[in-house]
# Entry
Amino acid sequence: MCCDQDAVKWVLVISLGNNFKVLNMKKHTLTALALVAASLVSTQAFAQAKEGPWMVRARAVSLSSANTDTTGLGLTVNDIVLPEVDISYFFSPNLAVELILTVPQEHDVKSKGVKIGTLSQLPPTLLAQYHFPMNGYKPYVGAGINYTDISKVNLLGGVATLDKDSWGGALQVGVDIPLDKNWSINFDVKKVYIRTHVYAGGVNAGTLKLDPLLVGAGVGYRF
# Structure
């Protein structure tokens, strides 16, 4: 009887030990699964939150005008480098709108190489963009509308003048190269259509087409 009782005790101990091991393994398995699930949820939340809908860029831009006119005067304005700031809002990872701003820019106006005066222009531009996220690079294309305010026109001592503003289309291609989830480097090229009538003594003498090409580089911050 004694031996039978001892055998029963050992069977109970071994059985309890095995059950404890099974329960312990299940506990570790459940813990591992919970950690994996938490990691997946955390990763998904980070992926959704890592890019905010707003982006602000600052660029240095080289402006080169086409300088074609129908006046016969050979009118040109000089090329310049200007500061540019733009504000973008992303409706989705692919679709965005961008408002481009700068400060008034002064140009020398020449007729067949001889300076005849100056003008200032302020060209805010609104563009709709489509972005192509691909392998760390984010190229985009855009199209929109430009409004240019033309002011401080001083040509031939006031004998000649221009329209006060211009409306035209704008085209764009560029790329953002992310440095981290917020900062990026930007390269951008735009073609903007700016035209004005030239008046001499109050008479329309023809059209001056500036139609500048703008090539810029800068940094962006997304939040």
Observations:
- The helical segments are 2-49.
- The chain has two domains: 1-49, 51-222.
- Residues 119 and 153 are 4 Å apart (CA to CA).
